[in-house]
Amino acid sequence: MNFVDHQLTAQSSIIRFVEGTWRFGRLGDQSPGASSATLDGMFDFRHPHHSPFILDPTSGGCLHA
Predict the structure, then answer these.
(1) Cα–Cα dist 39/44, whole Å
(2) Which among 5, 9, 27, 39 is least buried, having the fewest CB atoms inside 10 angstroms?
(3) If you compute the radius of gyration of the chain from its CA atoms, what whole number of angstroms results?
C-alpha cells in the first residue's frame, strides 16, 4: 500500500501479466506481451492481504472493514 512503481509499462503489459499469472504461455507467436514490461513490481503476492480492501467512493481513500 502507498507504493509507486516507476517501471515504464504499456497496455500490452496487461496481456503479459495474464499470460504469466495463469500460465497460459504466450498467446500466439506474435503476442504483444512477449516484448512488454512486466507488471510484477505493482503486486506483492508473497504477502497477501486477508482482510477486504474497500475504497471510499467519494474520496478514493481506503475504508477499513
Answers:
(1) 11
(2) 5
(3) 15
61 secondary structure, DSSP code: P
Minimum mean pLDDT range among 16-20, 22-26, 32-36, 50-54: 32-36
The contacts of residue 18 (CB under 8 Å, 6+ apart) are: 24, 33
Written as one string, the DSSP assignment of 3-35 is --------THHHHHHHHHHTT---SSTT-GGGG
Condensed to tens digits (0 to 9), the pLDDT of residues 33-60 reads 667 788 888 887 788 777 777 888 888 8
The predicted model scores a pTM of: 0.53
Which one-letter amino acid corresponds to residue 25?
Answer: G
**Distance separating alpha carbons of residues 16 and 4, to the nearest angstrom:** 20
